[in-house]
Design goal:
About 60% of the residues lie in helices and about 5% in strands. The protein has 17 helices and five strands. A five-stranded parallel sheet has the order 2-1-3-4-5, with helices on both faces. Helix 15 links the parallel strand 3 (about 275) and strand 4. The N and C termini lie far apart (about 45 Å). The mean pLDDT is about 90.
Length: about 350
């Protein structure tokens, strides 16, 4: 059974996993009501999606990273680690019975064995040693209180005080967005707060555009996209704006971008580089499709592809296997790599 078959049968397998979990624990119906089964089905589908991506990439580390993230997220919502371990055991048993030809047992057993030793917390992304730590801390606090106007004033005051636009992006916007994601994982902010922080940051970024887009440009062109289904777009926008500040001409296409439309934009703008971001490993399927389509386009034969995002973090060499020309872990790495590839 291939990773693609898991995806095709994900509803069937997810339902079987849920039914077995509730058959083992009939008290869950009384404790959670119908919503309990809905949540269990959602968790099962997530497990299967990330498992399929790990099998396809031949990467146990990729699935372990997901399970470690899930452990922290669920524990912060009062779901004991033993419940996650048992649910993974049920995933294993259902796959063994319904799809005995799939090679998932090793990855699942490894995740279960290591679950107890995985961290129960995540360190803050705000570094007290950063010269803009006070700015980042205040900016985050205002975003979480939904005060966009005051948050914008913090940024303009920092710029007036001598901070460069590049440093605002690197030392405020980037770590604050990561910190908001961490706080959601730890159940300390709501989904609404997380979405507000992302939307507000994108609006506040426009305050810097006169300093970014007004400078002299070199003949270097980049198109930036998040693949279909991917909604984590602020990180890529940070990279795109920093490239623009660095003298590049950029076209930021945002989230949930169809591969064919992105490639067409590369053709029309004579792009030197396509930047592709994926946060969730199940979206690697679409990244492969984007790169395949890009490579099959003759007029883009000399153009390059850089990939980035959390999906690539645990397997730094995955970019080679997926067909890209390079991988960047953060905005600074992307700037350096883009210049090197074009040069």
């Amino acid at each position: 059974m291939s990773a693609e078959t898991i995806r095709l049968r994900i509803e069937e397998l997810g339902e079987a996993i849920t039914e077995r979990h509730f058959a083992r624990h009939p008290e869950l119906d009384a404790r959670y009501g119908p919503i309990g089964r809905v949540r269990c089905r959602e968790d099962a589908r997530f497990h299967l999606q990330f498992l399929a991506a790990a099998i396809e990439a031949r990467s146990s580390a990729m699935f372990l990273d997901y399970v470690g993230w899930a452990k922290v997220m669920l524990a912060s919502r009062d779901v004991p680690v033993r419940d996650l371990a048992e649910n993974l055991e049920i995933v294993d048993s259902v796959i063994r019975e319904r799809a005995p030809d799939i090679d998932a047992a090793r990855i699942l057993r490894l995740a279960i064995e290591r679950l107890d030793s995985m961290p129960s917390d995540v360190a803050s992304f705000l570094d007290p040693r950063s010269p803009l730590f006070p700015v980042a801390s205040q900016y985050l606090e205002l975003l979480l209180h939904s005060d966009r106007r005051a948050a914008a004033e913090v940024i303009t005051n920092a710029l007036d005080g001598g901070a460069s636009p590049r440093d605002i992006y690197r030392l405020v916007f980037e770590p604050v967005q990561q910190e908001v994601g961490r706080l959601w994982q730890l159940n300390r902010v709501t989904v609404a707060q997380e979405h507000f922080a992302s939307a507000a940051t994108q609006q506040i970024m426009t305050l810097l555009y006169s300093r970014i887009f007004g400078g002299e440009k070199r003949d270097r062109r980049a198109v930036a996209m998040c693949v279909g289904g991917e909604l984590h777009e602020v990180g890529l926008r940070i990279v795109s704006d920093l490239l623009e500040l660095h003298g590049w001409q950029t076209w930021y296409l945002g989230a949930n971008m169809p591969p064919s439309a992105a490639v067409q934009m590369c053709i029309e703008r004579r792009a030197d580089i396509l930047l592709v971001s994926a946060t969730l490993t199940p979206h690697l399927v679409t990244v492969r499709e984007v790169i395949r389509l890009f490579r099959s386009t003759e007029v883009l034969a000399n153009a390059k592809v850089i990939v980035g995002g959390r999906a690539f973090r645990m397997e730094p060499e995955l970019w080679k296997e997926i067909g890209a020309d390079g991988y960047a872990a953060n905005a600074d790495e992307c700037l350096d790599l883009a210049d090197r590839l074009v040069s």
